[in-house]
Amino acid sequence: MRATEHWPVVVIGGGQAGLAMSHELKERAVSHVIFEKNRIAHSWRTQRWDAFCLVTPNWQCRLPGHHYPGKEPHGFMPKDEIVSYIEDYAKKIDAPVREGVAVKKLSRNGSGYRVETQEGTVTADQVVLAVSAYHKPKIPALANDLSASIKQIHSSEYRNPGQLPEGAVMVVGSGQSGCQIAEDLHLAGRKVHLVVGSAPRCPRVYRGRDAVDWLDDLGQYDLPVDKHPLKDGVRGKANHYLTGRDGGRDIDLRRFALEGMILHGRLLGLEDGRLVFGDDLTKNLDAADAVYNGICTMIDKHIESQGIEAPGQAHYRPVWQPEIGAESFDSVQAGITSIVWATGFTSDWSWVDLPVFENNYPKHERGITPEPGLYVVGLPWLYTWGSGRFVGVGRDAAYIADHVADVSREKTAVPVASRKETRPWHGLDGYNLASAVA
After folding, report:
1. Separation CA 370–CA 108 (nearest Å)
2. Whether 244 and 310 share a structural domain
3. Is the Cβ–Cβ distance between 186 and 180 less than 8 Å?
4. Which CATH number characterizes residue 273's domain?
5. Do residue 33 and residue 146 come from a single domain?
6. Residue ranges of the chain whose pLDDT lies below 50
7. Residue range 117-148, pLDDT digits in tens
8. From residue 45, how far is each of 91, 148, 257 by CA, in Å?
9. Which InterPro entries match (predicted)?
10. Backbone dihedral angles phi then psi of residue 275, each to the nearest 5 degrees
11. In this structure, are 153 and 268 located in the same domain?
């Protein structure tokens, strides 16, 4: 690229958020370029295990102008199909993506921006950050003090049971990735220790339909963050665990325990070479089940209030109870030969030299930051629960693109309150996921 290259808009990130943004900018005839430091669909391609599949039904794949095209709307695409879905989208919209071009620094350049890449520097009137919030694997410091004989990997590096040495495996973290990886190992006949945290769980199918279908009817994926009881606090909450594997099913950690998986409370640290666990296993399992049954109750109320014919179904009852409280043990003596750290990611915005961050999170209102001409898209709960998903990122992109187009055409921006929703939240009184599980 030429050192003096200039673009009206630069989009940083070529994942589903960046591509959705490109579609909406094209619809508004706004010239732009996308810089993607890896390949399109990089994280789906390289940071998922072999048996990975979506946990939400295929019909929720609603990228703007490219809804799920297959024959199984209520199925769950495996990893390779997800990659193809995104790649096909990029081709369909003829996205101006420059793959393999990393942005090293973003800073102000007069009234616009200076974008320094590994191939040179460009300037832009406006910039959209479409790089998610999951940048660096998060692994606790105690990992450095464990025996060198134990193989340690982050969940983003896990592919299949065969990559781990023979012996027991400890999975630390019971969010979506941790529970599904533990299940993958368990189904392969491995001895699994699972460290259980506070992540909630959700039914797969309840009263004849996938719970996601019911939640969509209830407007949960359209609930704005400012109307959620937790407000901005919901952005730090873990997603519910369940799976789309083998056609979709619940993940019941208690049933895994009956089948031989060993469950532990939260990992607290390492003392005298022994792993120390909290006494919160029962509390965490009970809390996850309370969320599960809270969702069932919410669906029950909706069915009753709308007069919907649906088969009856009992709420969940625990099939197993822990017998231990706090505990500790030597991992090597316990036969643990590998650990999978399903402990999430941290954000790295160090390359953005702009005063728009608070507690390592970009300040914004529906993706519009305090810095004129700077936007973010694709973050979890950017505006709704669907914002970080295929189902909701298009709406966010459309909203931001309206603002970008207004600025680029030197028109007065439309006030936030007067902007139309592409799919408004219908605010069913008394029905929201937070109230169902409180």
Report:
1. 13
2. yes
3. no
4. 3.50.50.60
5. no
6. 411-414, 416-431, 435-438
7. 999 999 999 999 999 988 999 999 999 999 99
8. 17, 30, 31
9. Auxin_biosynth/cation_transpt, CHP04046_FMN-dependent, FAD/NAD-bd_sf
10. -70, 135
11. yes
